[in-house]
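Question (not urgent): is this output format expected?
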Amino acid sequence: MKKIIFALLLVLANSIVEAQEEKNIADLDFLYQTIQQTPSYKDQLKGDEKYKQLYANLRKDLKSADDFEVFKQMAKLIMPLNDNHLGFYRKADSNYKFIPPKYKLDSVAMINKYISYPVDSVEGIYQGGKTRYLIRLVKGNEYQIINLSTGELKGIMYKTPHQSFDVIQFAPNPYAYTLTRNIKLLNNLLIGTNYYKGNVKAFYNMVSRKEKYDYKVLEDQIGYLSLGTFNE
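Got this back:
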């Protein structure tokens, strides 16, 4: 009897895995077909055998039932494209809640290790508001963004062929996570995110205390808006 129950459970498990894989492949196929309609694909990758092989390889490796792992695999289909207008995200809903992993870290040891990394290295200690973060290489072209206070994974970065990074960031509703493109480290600022190294002034957070503006109507349905300068 136990053998029969075990056999039934095994068949059921295999059926679930096969159904999940079929769904994942269908999603990947849809993404691939959508990408093929974009001008950037037609200009950059149409007829590219390496890209076709990437797609074929991804199709063979989509058995995971882990939604986030599948998302990372599918994002690899976007990364070869040099196109900042492509958006990709996983929408949160009542049926899915993503819980980022946490790591046990010695924050003092991590700071001592990474604080002296070269300023032009994407690895290092970053500030984001009042919180410190660690960006570290984990394998190949993949980096992790970790909250040093909690050990929580806040995002994953991938180095692209375009001298930039694609970043999967975890966000509150309505998205569980989203792929942000063309992230670059410039003058200690990780442009496109809220992270920066050292005591760099984050100008995008500056607030003008003396807002100055001037609006004029030039002619029917045409106006002119002049904004003042930043004031400390």
